[in-house]
Design goal:
The protein has about 190 residues and is an alpha+beta fold. Helix content is about 50%, strand content about 10%.
Length: about 190
């Protein structure tokens, strides 16, 4: 009796497995070539006003998408441009001042954004010293932007000291890249 039950159970498991394999999902069809571009249907005869409205709405959506993509590019460019400092210094170099002038202009034109100024150092010096130096560097940029008319309420500073190096090398080339202020926009 037990043997018959075992045979029936094995046959049932085999049948269920075969049924599952036979009824599996269909394979996804792979598209080749370019995707079909959406087109607007021709307007019904005599309904050119509806067509003009639909076309104007489509143009407005495309313009909004282009503007949004343009703003994303501006944000990436703003955040990608850092300022750099000399060893053990927090004074702004002429190149840094020129970059900050451009950043101030962008911030004036985009008042919905605030900026976080992040001060960084190279690995030389103690953690405490580098945190204080990073803070002085961030504050130097803050003061310069504030003097250019950017409200202090739109800017914050933070020092990361040596904790977030841009270049992990242990030479002057790497260290010069790590002595920097970074700028992160906040909406």
């Amino acid at each position: 009796m037990m043997r018959k039950m075992m045979i029936v159970l094995v046959a049932l498991v085999f049948a269920c497995s075969a049924l599952l394999l036979m009824t599996s999902c269909a394979k996804k069809q792979v598209m080749t070539g370019e995707p079909e571009k959406p087109t607007m249907a021709a307007p019904p005869p005599g309904d050119t006003e509806a067509y003009k409205r639909a076309e104007a709405e489509r143009q407005a959506r495309l313009a909004a998408l282009a503007a949004a993509e343009g703003l994303r590019g501006e944000i990436r460019a703003f955040e990608a441009e850092n300022i750099h400092f000399d060893f053990d210094k927090s004074e702004l170099k002429p190149e840094a001042r020129a970059i900050l002038v451009k950043k101030a202009e962008w911030l004036r034109n985009n008042e919905e954004f605030s900026v976080r100024i992040e001060g960084h150092c190279d690995e030389r010096g103690t953690n405490e010293y580098n945190l204080a130096l990073g803070e002085r560097r961030a504050n130097a940029a803050w003061k310069f932007l504030n003097a250019l008319g950017i409200s202090g309420s739109r800017m914050t500073t933070i020092s990361y000291g040596e904790e977030r190096p841009a270049d992990t090398g242990h030479n002057e080339t790497a260290w010069s890249q790590n002595r920097r202020d970074e700028f992160k926009l906040i909406r």
